[in-house]
Design brief:
By secondary structure, the protein is α/β, with parallel strands linked by helices. The protein contains 13 helices and five strands.
C-alpha cells in the first residue's frame, strides 16, 4: 500500500477539483478512495468509511491514476453499455417488422443476436442478445414459428370469382342436400416414421431415445361432404390419374348405394339423384383430358370444380388431414397395418372429432370455408 502523502501537491489538487466538479457519483467515490489513501487510511478503513466492499477499494487503489482521471472510468461509462434510448426502441420495433433481405442481408429471419449487431451499427449502443430479447418481451413480442403465406402467388380475381361460386353451391346444398352435394377432395400421406419429441428430464440430463426409426407410409385419397361432414377415404399406393379415376369410380358407386338405401332405384340415380360437385386442387393427374372425359361419360352426376391456384384455404378436407395427423402424432405403431386400421376408424367410421371452425397453425392461410 502506498505511503501516506504519496500524491504530489498538484495531483492532490487535481483530484480535489475533479471531486467537486464530477457529476458521476461512482467517479467521485473512486476519487475519494485515492484521497483517503493519500491521508494514510487503510483499505479496510476506507471501505468502512465509504460503505463499499473491500474488493472495490482494492481495485481502484490499484487501477486509479491521479495523472489520468480516465483510468477511473470503466467500459460501461465509455458507451459500450449505454442505456436503451427511446430512439433505440423505436428503431428496434421498426426493424423487427422489416424483412432482413430488404436491408441487404442474406438470412431470412431476425434473431436477437442479429438485431443487437444491426442496431449497434446504427446507434452505437451495444446490447447483448438477452437484453434485446427482454426489450421485445416487454413490448409483447414472442419468438414463434411464422405461418407460411401464399398471398404473393394468388390471382385475387380468380379467388373472388371462385368464392362467389362456392358460396352459391353451399347455399343450395344446405337448403336441398338431396339435389346437390358438395364434396371437398384431396390426397394426403401418413408416415410410420417416428419423429423425436420433447421429453421431461431432470435438469442437466437428457433422456436417451432409440435411433431406429420405422419406415413406411400410407397414402389416402378421398373427400368430405359439406352438408353433414361425412368422410369417405380410400387407401392408395400412389397418386396418379388412373388411381384418381378408380377411386372416384368407387366413390360414385358408394353414392349410388346410399341413394338406393333410401328405397330409390339405382337406374334413376342419373336423372333423379343429387348432382355431385367435387372441389379439388390443380394436381396434374386431376386434369388429364382422357381421364376427365371418362369421368364425364361414366359418372355423369359428378362435376369437378377446380380450386384457384395456391388456395388450399378453400378446401375443407385440409382440416380432416390436419386433425388426423394431430391425433396420431405422439403414437407409436409397430406396422403399417396397425396405422391403416386406426386411420380407417378415424377417417371412415367417424371416430375422429374435428373442430370445423378452428384455424390451422403453420398451414399457410387458414382454412376458411365454413
Amino acid at each position: 500500500m502506498p505511503a501516506k502523502n504519496y500524491l504530489k501537491p498538484e495531483q492532490k489538487e487535481k483530484l480535489q477539483k475533479a471531486f467537486r466538479e464530477e457529476n458521476n457519483a461512482e467517479i467521485r467515490e473512486r476519487i475519494l478512495i485515492l484521497l483517503l489513501l493519500n491521508d494514510g487510511k487503510t483499505q479496510a478503513e476506507i471501505a468502512n468509511f465509504i460503505g463499499c466492499s473491500l474488493k472495490t477499494v482494492s481495485r481502484w487503489c490499484g487501477r486509479g491514476d491521479a495523472d489520468n482521471l480516465e483510468s477511473l472510468r470503466d467500459k460501461r461509462m465509455k458507451g459500450n453499455h449505454k442505456k436503451v434510448t427511446k430512439e433505440y426502441e423505436e428503431l428496434l420495433l421498426k426493424v423487427i417488422e422489416t424483412c432482413p433481405q430488404n436491408l441487404g442481408y442474406e438470412f431470412g429471419r431476425w434473431t436477437a443476436k442479429r438485431l443487437a449487431t444491426y442496431l449497434e451499427e446504427k446507434t452505437g449502443i451495444t446490447l447483448s442478445s438477452s437484453q434485446v430479447t427482454r426489450i421485445l418481451k416487454a413490448k409483447k413480442y414472442v419468438y414463434i414459428w411464422s405461418k407460411y403465406s401464399l398471398e404473393d402467388k394468388w390471382d385475387k380475381k380468380k379467388r373472388k370469382a371462385f368464392k362467389k361460386k362456392l358460396k352459391e353451391y353451399l347455399k343450395i346444398t344446405i337448403k336441398s342436400p338431396d339435389k346437390l352435394q358438395v364434396w371437398f377432395w384431396d390426397e394426403s400421406g401418413f408416415s410410420l416414421r417416428v419423429i423425436r419429441r420433447k421429453n421431461w428430464s431432470k435438469k442437466g440430463t437428457r433422456k436417451k431415445v432409440k435411433g431406429l426409426r420405422r419406415k413406411g407410409r400410407i397414402n389416402v385419397m378421398g373427400g368430405v361432404r359439406y352438408s353433414d361432414k361425412k368422410r369417405w377415404v380410400e387407401f392408395i399406393q400412389k397418386g396418379d390419374s388412373l388411381t384418381f379415376y378408380q377411386v372416384l369410380k368407387s366413390f360414385y358407386e358408394e353414392l349410388i348405394k346410399e341413394w338406393m338405401s333410401a328405397e330409390n332405384s339405382g337406374e334413376d340415380f342419373q336423372e333423379k339423384g343429387a348432382k355431385i360437385v367435387i372441389i379439388l386442387d390443380n394436381a396434374s393427374f386431376h386434369k388429364k383430358e382422357d381421364i376427365l372425359k371418362k369421368i364425364e361419360e361414366d359418372m355423369p352426376n359428378i362435376h369437378l370444380e377446380f380450386l384457384p391456384e395456391y388456395s388450399p384455404d378453400y378446401n375443407l378436407i385440409e382440416l380432416v388431414w390436419h386433425s388426423a395427423k394431430e391425433y396420431i402424432a405422439n403414437r407409436l405403431f409397430t406396422s403399417i397395418e396397425e396405422l391403416e386400421f386406426l386411420l380407417h376408424r378415424l377417417l371412415n367410421e367417424g371416430e375422429l372429432i374435428i373442430k370445423w371452425h378452428r384455424k390451422l397453425k403453420n398451414k399457410g392461410n387458414s382454412v376458411n370455408v365454413v
